[in-house]
Design a protein that fits this description.
This protein is an alpha+beta fold and about 375 residues long. The chain has a domain of about 160 residues: Heat Shock Protein 90. Helices cover about 70% and strands about 10% of the residues. The protein contains 11 helices and 7 strands. The strands form 2 sheets. A 5-stranded mixed β-sheet has the order 2-4-5-7-6, covered by helices on one side. A hairpin with a 3-residue loop joins strand 6 and strand 7. Helix 3 crosses helix 6, helix 6 packs antiparallel against helix 7 and helix 10 crosses helix 11. The longest helix is centred in the middle third of the chain and has 67 residues.
């Protein structure tokens, strides 16, 4: 017995050690990422990498040390030009749309830096009259190189600003979409809840034996809506189970006075869908298809897996002559259907097709959806 206890102790100790090592690795990765994303760090790494590249491309008759010093001086002047441009000229002139002033100042800065740079290299080449005279003769190339670097930094800055703007725009759009979806979904849940509570109230007034069973069904559905529908996607099988509970509740509420059928064709396991998409269809069908003025009322619901990741959801119900038309229903006849149309456009853009068939005695809604 002591041996087994010791084995258990060592297993626990080993698992703790493994957990500590994993946490340490995560912490180290986090620290490395935080270090590398500091502005001064990645800027320094960029210039160091550029220095190595320039030295590699410039190795010739001069020693490695001399080449490194020359390229370091060269990059220092480039860096001054780049940071004057990005930290002062671009924010205060280009971004303020003072384009002409910006161009004049950029040309002036490059013109100011060029002779200083030539003077430094002229001093370093003292004693070599040939190279010194070559500097003076080719000073316009130095100026053009400085201009190329300056305008290159402007282009890079514009590209990065555009990318940042696009990222911020995408984040804002996603936030707006999620807020709108939460709002639309919040309109669906109370709409159904109030209808069901009214039904329970009516049954309690009649002291119906069906009231407790409806309360149980309602509690199951509320549990699903409150605890599982907060995710962007839910298993299609759970949505199907929710529909079964909904229809069972409606069957109990109407006391068998209307015919309710729900058929599922195909395998729904392993598929995911946005939650509560079908509720407005069901509410609408019972609102108009279960009217007391309709004889032999019916609501037929059919869900079919057409192929992998594609489904068709169909709801048919008979109706009275006063049943609203498709356009009226979607625009003002029912908040639920209007919300559903909006949700579909947000969640499944160009991946759904909503068809409404309105005949004198029957109303049919067909939703083809690519998951």
């Amino acid at each position: 017995m002591r041996i087994f206890e010791n084995h258990g102790y060592f297993r626990i100790k080993a698992s703790k050690r493994t957990l500590l090592e994993e946490n340490k690795q995560i912490f180290n990765k986090s620290n490395i990422y935080s270090f590398l994303t500091q502005k001064i760090v990645y800027h320094s790494l960029f210039w160091i990498a550029l220095l190595v590249l320039f030295v590699y491309l410039s190795i010739g008759e001069e020693s490695l040390t001399e080449t490194m010093i020359n390229e370091f001086i060269n990059l220092t002047f480039y860096a001054v030009l780049v940071y004057v441009n990005t930290l002062y000229l671009i924010p205060y002139f280009l971004k303020q749309k003072k384009i002409f002033t910006y161009l004049v100042l950029l040309l002036a800065v490059a013109l100011f830096i060029t002779p200083i740079k030539i003077f430094v290299f002229h001093f370093r080449l003292s004693g070599n009259d040939l190279l010194q005279s070559g500097l003076i003769e080719n000073q316009h190339y130095f100026y053009l190189a400085n201009l190329f670097v300056a305008f290159g930094s402007t282009l890079v800055n514009i590209i990065f600003d555009w990318m940042q703007h696009q990222r911020e725009r995408t984040i804002l759009e996603n936030q707006n979409i999620q807020s709108e979806l939460r709002f639309l979904k919040s309109q669906i849940n109370p709409h159904f809840l109030f209808n069901t509570l009214n039904s329970i109230y009516a049954l309690t007034l009649k002291k119906s034996d069906d009231a407790p069973e409806i309360v149980v069904k309602l509690s199951e559905m509320l549990r699903y809506m409150l605890y599982e529908c907060n995710e962007k996607l839910v298993p299609l099988s759970k949505e199907v189970n929710y529909i079964r509970n909904y229809l069972a509740l409606e069957q109990l509420r109407h006391g068998g006075k209307i015919s309710i059928n729900f058929d599922v064709e195909g395998d729904v396991e392993g598929q995911s869908i946005a939650p509560l998409l079908f509720v407005p269809f069901l509410e609408n069908s019972f609102k108009h298809g279960a009217s007391k003025t309709i004889k032999d009322g019916y609501v037929n619901v059919h869900l079919q897996m057409l192929e992998k990741h594609k489904i068709q959801f169909v709801v048919k119900n008979n109706k009275t002559d006063t049943f609203p038309t498709a356009d009226h229903s979607l625009k003002s006849g029912g908040i639920g259907l209007a919300n559903l149309d909006r949700r579909l456009n947000i969640l499944y853009p160009k991946k759904h097709n909503l068809t409404i068939k309105d005949s004198p005695n029957e109303y049919e809604v067909i939703l083809d959806l690519s998951l």
